[in-house]
Amino acid sequence: MKKVVSPVQSLNGSIKVPGDKSISHRAVMFGAIANGKTTIEGFLPGADCLSTISCFRKLGVQIERSGDEVTVYGNGWEGLKEPDEILDVGNSGTTTRLMLGVLGTRPFHSVVIGDESIGKRPMARVTDPLKAMGAKIDGRGEGNYTPLAVRGGETKGITYESPVASAQVKSAILLAGLQSKGLTSVTEPFKSRDHTERMLTAFGVELKEDNTTVSVRGLQTLKAQHVLVPGDISSAAFFLVAGAIVKNSSITLTNVGMNETRTGIIDVLNRMGAHLQINNSKVVNEEKIADLTISTSKLSSIEIGGEIIPRLIDEIPVIAVLATQANGTTVIKDAEELKVKETNRIDTVVSQLKKLGANIEATEDGMMIHGPTKLTGGKVSSFGDHRIGMAMAIAGSVASEEVEISDVEAIDVSYPNFFDHLSELI
Ligand SMILES: O=C(O)C1=C[C@@H](OP(=O)(O)O)[C@@H](O)[C@H](O)C1
Ligand SMILES: C=C(OP(=O)(O)O)C(=O)O
């Protein structure tokens, strides 16, 4: 499907961004392995989280959904049954990796597949440590790519030093650790998002955190909970950038998750000189939330690298759009992980923004953007990557002419009503 985005005169109004994708996945999965009835409010009905629901239904868990309200009837770890069907994760890396952590300890056979993009994403980062714990996993490239066949079983704890700062790796190992004998601990180079740690604690699990190491003792059970999902800061990011770069604009985003492991985009906006206000801060369900108001800003370039990268990894496509409107050269480095997302996001961001006249170049571990540039119209593609599609739409709103974006249906993965929200602000 194609969509044409026309240049806009201003963007004004208030939006309640959809539920957090990371938290929605975890609420379903943890509810599925917990004992009792877990209720989820503010669930993200995006394609990725629906894949998680569908996989856990195939694993024998009763899950009911009505819009953004979900009820999961968990029967503990033993409630998971050998699936009759293949578990299809669609486009979702989070579903794949976290579910592998669960399947790795279950004494049955299952097969995990996904779409073409998932088939190219590295899974050895979780299958290797899970195999070291005792799970049997095979797949293309010695268990690196889907389709993956899993036979879980008796696993033992592991002390694992992850080469990447990845919440998916950390979460998969911790989930397997919960069902293994002994202690499991994961250390990562920088702290990645900690929703798993927070939500497991809320579900009654005891875990220990020390800097970038998290440890759990095995054979723990989870107690069903009520989960209130905050708005996704990664979705809010598109409108935060839009509000800062479109002239005569002021946008309020309500109920945005402000977990510090996710707020790299806020730090970037502040450092670049954006007019950003944070109001009504509170804590709900172990997670911080706030309302954000952003208005048209004069921006300066910055360097982005190191520990902040995992705190804004999914926002880099739209940060690149932001940087095209900032004065000077913005350097994004230490972001090799972008190469193994839904697309190689260094390539797709650079090639598509170049089509709109951006002065941008790829580097080994990121990109450099020279601004400010008046973006032009043109034809671009999402390449099936939701975040590329939305970043292009925001670029289109400050371009001098129409931008035609192909493959926009990919946006349903994380933000099904994205274009409705954009229209509401015009
Ligand atoms: O755990 C999660 O919910 C996620 C972790 C990140 O991936 P990595 O763990 O691969 O860094 C992020 O890019 C993804 O969108 C969601
Ligand atoms: C990388 C992403 O998600 P996942 O890894 O779950 O596919 C994303 O949402 O940008």
From TrEMBL:
<feature type="binding site">
    <location>
        <position position="345"/>
    </location>
    <ligand>
        <name>phosphoenolpyruvate</name>
    </ligand>
</feature>
<feature type="binding site">
    <location>
        <position position="121"/>
    </location>
    <ligand>
        <name>phosphoenolpyruvate</name>
    </ligand>
</feature>
<comment type="pathway">
    <text>Metabolic intermediate biosynthesis; chorismate biosynthesis; chorismate from D-erythrose 4-phosphate and phosphoenolpyruvate: step 6/7.</text>
</comment>
<protein>
    <recommendedName>
        <fullName>3-phosphoshikimate 1-carboxyvinyltransferase</fullName>
        <ecNumber>2.5.1.19</ecNumber>
    </recommendedName>
</protein>
<comment type="function">
    <text>Catalyzes the transfer of the enolpyruvyl moiety of phosphoenolpyruvate (PEP) to the 5-hydroxyl of shikimate-3-phosphate (S3P) to produce enolpyruvyl shikimate-3-phosphate and inorganic phosphate.</text>
</comment>
<comment type="similarity">
    <text>Belongs to the EPSP synthase family.</text>
</comment>
<feature type="binding site">
    <location>
        <position position="314"/>
    </location>
    <ligand>
        <name>3-phosphoshikimate</name>
    </ligand>
</feature>
<feature type="binding site">
    <location>
        <position position="21"/>
    </location>
    <ligand>
        <name>3-phosphoshikimate</name>
    </ligand>
</feature>
<dbReference type="GO" id="GO:0005737">
    <property type="term" value="C:cytoplasm"/>
</dbReference>
<dbReference type="InterPro" id="IPR013792">
    <property type="entry name" value="RNA3'P_cycl/enolpyr_Trfase_a/b"/>
</dbReference>
<dbReference type="InterPro" id="IPR036968">
    <property type="entry name" value="Enolpyruvate_Tfrase_sf"/>
</dbReference>
<feature type="binding site">
    <location>
        <position position="21"/>
    </location>
    <ligand>
        <name>phosphoenolpyruvate</name>
    </ligand>
</feature>
<keyword id="KW-0057">Aromatic amino acid biosynthesis</keyword>
<keyword id="KW-0028">Amino-acid biosynthesis</keyword>
<feature type="binding site">
    <location>
        <position position="341"/>
    </location>
    <ligand>
        <name>3-phosphoshikimate</name>
    </ligand>
</feature>
<feature type="binding site">
    <location>
        <position position="93"/>
    </location>
    <ligand>
        <name>phosphoenolpyruvate</name>
    </ligand>
</feature>
<dbReference type="GO" id="GO:0008652">
    <property type="term" value="P:amino acid biosynthetic process"/>
</dbReference>
<dbReference type="InterPro" id="IPR023193">
    <property type="entry name" value="EPSP_synthase_CS"/>
</dbReference>
<dbReference type="InterPro" id="IPR001986">
    <property type="entry name" value="Enolpyruvate_Tfrase_dom"/>
</dbReference>
<feature type="domain" description="Enolpyruvate transferase">
    <location>
        <begin position="7"/>
        <end position="422"/>
    </location>
</feature>
<feature type="binding site">
    <location>
        <position position="387"/>
    </location>
    <ligand>
        <name>phosphoenolpyruvate</name>
    </ligand>
</feature>
<feature type="binding site">
    <location>
        <position position="166"/>
    </location>
    <ligand>
        <name>3-phosphoshikimate</name>
    </ligand>
</feature>
<dbReference type="InterPro" id="IPR006264">
    <property type="entry name" value="EPSP_synthase"/>
</dbReference>
<keyword id="KW-0963">Cytoplasm</keyword>
<comment type="subunit">
    <text>Monomer.</text>
</comment>
<feature type="binding site">
    <location>
        <position position="26"/>
    </location>
    <ligand>
        <name>3-phosphoshikimate</name>
    </ligand>
</feature>
<dbReference type="GO" id="GO:0003866">
    <property type="term" value="F:3-phosphoshikimate 1-carboxyvinyltransferase activity"/>
</dbReference>
<dbReference type="GO" id="GO:0009073">
    <property type="term" value="P:aromatic amino acid family biosynthetic process"/>
</dbReference>
<feature type="binding site">
    <location>
        <position position="22"/>
    </location>
    <ligand>
        <name>3-phosphoshikimate</name>
    </ligand>
</feature>
<feature type="binding site">
    <location>
        <position position="168"/>
    </location>
    <ligand>
        <name>phosphoenolpyruvate</name>
    </ligand>
</feature>
<dbReference type="Pfam" id="PF00275">
    <property type="entry name" value="EPSP_synthase"/>
</dbReference>
<dbReference type="GO" id="GO:0009423">
    <property type="term" value="P:chorismate biosynthetic process"/>
</dbReference>
<feature type="active site" description="Proton acceptor">
    <location>
        <position position="314"/>
    </location>
</feature>
<keyword id="KW-0808">Transferase</keyword>
<feature type="binding site">
    <location>
        <position position="168"/>
    </location>
    <ligand>
        <name>3-phosphoshikimate</name>
    </ligand>
</feature>
